[in-house]
Design brief:
Length: about 220
């Protein structure tokens, strides 16, 4: 049985990571790979309930440590229910956000620091690390604008209100952005940072080429 491979996508809201994840999923399926696609927060029934609590704009006064705990509760459930079993079966898991998001948003954005996030990761997630993380870092202002527009549209069209984070100010997002940079500098072997505003196609090609190299190495 081939070895399971764990791939995560990271970046600011509106960075285009979800589009790239979908494109990679399509490419892998065309290559006859067995894949599992999931996202955080959410992805399990329990996780979806946690997601609603976390992202709904009507959630008020959520303490930053409570927020941190909920992110890890969601993750623990996803690892137990989805990620570990799939990796054990030799599948390729594509996950939209993982612990780097917690380090960037709660550690950086909410200023809780990296240490608490990394230590919770170690104890709660058994230190499970992605094999490769694609970190999408297009222009800061363009990403934010895209994310805010998309959420306003979702609220109008579907009545879906997942705006709690997008309401944060630019300084919050600057800290998230900087923390992502820090993570990429600290773990250059795992984290493939894709800067600038290349086209969707160019970024997809870069991701596929990294993926091909990785699969050739581990399989
Ligand atoms: P989502 O709608 O999935 O946004 P996106 O499409 O941009 O990924 O919302 C996830 C939000 O939750 C996003 O604003 C980032 C935030 N988040 C954290 O703050 N910490 C975390 O650990 C995770 C997984 C997400």
């Amino acid at each position: 049985m081939p070895r399971g491979v764990f791939i995560t996508f990271e970046g600011l809201d509106g960075s285009g990571k979800t589009t790239q994840l979908r494109r990679l999923a399509e490419w892998l399926e065309a290559e006859q790979e067995s894949i599992v696609v999931t996202r955080q927060p959410g992805g399990t029934r329990i996780g979806d309930r946690i997601r609603t609590l976390l992202l709904d704009s009507r959630t008020e006064n959520l303490d930053s440590f409570a927020e941190l705990g909920l992110m890890f509760s969601d993750r623990a459930q996803a690892i137990a229910e989805i990620i570990r079993p799939a990796l054990d079966e030799g599948k390729i898991v594509l996950c939209d956000r993982f612990t780097d998001s917690t380090e960037a948003y709660q550690g950086g954005g909410r200023e809780l620091g990296s240490e608490i996030v990394l230590s919770l990761h170690k104890s709660i997630c058994g230190g499970l690390q992605p094999d490769v993380t694609f970190l999408l870092m297009p222009d800061f202002d363009a990403s934010l604008k895209r994310a805010r527009k998309r959420n306003t549209k979702a609220l109008k069209q579907e009545g879906k209100d997942e705006n709690r984070f997008e309401r944060e100010n630019d300084l919050f997002y600057r800290r998230v952005f900087e923390k992502y940079r820090e993570i990429a500098a600290r773990e250059p072997l795992r984290v493939i940072a894709i800067d600038g505003d290349a086209t969707i196609e160019e970024i997809h090609e870069r991701i596929v080429s990294v993926m091909k190299d990785h699969l050739a190495r581990v399989r």
